[in-house]
Amino acid sequence: MKEKSTSRRDFLKKSLIGAAAFTIVPRFVLGKGYLAPSDHLTKGIIGVGSMGRGHFNYAGTKTVAICDVDSRHLAIAQKTLGGGVKESRDFRELIQNSEVDIVHIATPPHWHGLMAVEAARSGKDIWCEKPMTRTIGEGKKVKEAVAQHGNIFRLNTWFRFDANFYGMNVPVKKIKKVVDTGMLGWPLKVTISKHTGFDWKFYWVGKENLPVEQVPNELDYEMWLGPAPYKPYSTHRVHTTFRGYWDYDGGGLGDMGQHYLDPVQYFLGKDNESPIKIEVDAPQQHSDAVGTWRKIVYTYADGCQIILDGAGTEEGKAYIEGPDGKLFRGFVSDIPDLERKLAQYPDPSPQMTDFVEAVRTRQKFALNEENGYYSCTLVNLGLAALRLNRTLNFDSQKQEFLNDEAANRLIHQPMRGPWTI
């Protein structure tokens, strides 16, 4: 017994020494996808305009590389970071940099899918701006690439797990708790409108007949366009106003849609499901410039609906309405003693909301490539109906439109050579 006890002590002692040594093993010794516990996570940020610079200061990470096609953005970023950060104008250099653990994608949406797939193939973890992708087909490719290569993916909208949710003025988990209790009944209708606290930002509209202008020296416009169709340069087409053009985004719906719709998908329990019908009421859209719309209605197979009210005609409507009760802006309800009744029910299941911890432990983040794909598809379904200006029927299982060749062409839109995904 004494010999066995001594052997066990020796074993534990050697194990602890080994564990201590492990904490200082350099990252490259461990190989792709493995991180020494003492290491600081490093990140490279693609797109360091105003949005990208917001990615600098996330706790637990250090920016070691930046990329932008505009030299002014790079200069501002270097000054903000204090200099000494590796910079490039080609995102592929950043993705292939062995010093980078996490790739942050803060470009216009027409680049998101392509860059995310390349980062996944290179073994990087990914933090991507919303919307996840500009098309449904690109979203499928991202989902497949992350599944194949085992990356940790985060989409940069946080309302399903953090902060008060716009006009509701409570966290989404409290709204989900109400839905989960069944007190509102089923099916539910959710109205997203200025009257329920959501601004559709119709200032993100494009301009028709843009003037052709000289490309500024600091901008690599060819690389800015990348996979998008070639269009002559105009100041309004790039940087802060790109959202107004179909080639790069989808106006206010493209900008805010995933912020507004992802939490709805979550509390309705639709993280693996798409609506089967999309109806639109809008003026005919221009082929290049995004316009406004009056209403978009999504209907699920079980009768649940999401109504996007762009014209502001849904005044007085509840945010959530069911056959047994309503929930209005500011978390006001027609259900007597809602708060007291709610306290008797369990809270929703906890979520992994620390991205650094998710990367270190290889746990799926709360808003990831899978549920993020479905909420981004909600946005892209609405944009497809808007561009075609007609009702679309969608197969939720096959993820394709029914009997509509033109709509299905919008799922997999061609990329300008040499870019492919």
Automatic annotation (TrEMBL):
Stretches assigned to the Gfo/Idh/MocA-like oxidoreductase N-terminal domain: 44-155
One Pfam family linked to the record: GFO_IDH_MocA_C2
UniProt keyword annotations, A-Z: Oxidoreductase
UniProt cross-references to InterPro entries, sorted A to Z: Gfo/Idh/MocA-like_OxRdtase_N, Gfo/Idh/MocA_oxidrdct_glycsds, Gfo/Idh/MocA_OxRdtase_bact_C, NAD(P)-bd_dom_sf, TAT_signal, TAT_signal_bac_arc
GO MF annotations, alphabetized: nucleotide binding; oxidoreductase activity
Sequence ranges assigned to domain Gfo/Idh/MocA-like oxidoreductase bacterial type C-terminal in this UniProt record: 168-421
Record field: transmembrane: none
Protein name: Gfo/Idh/MocA family oxidoreductase
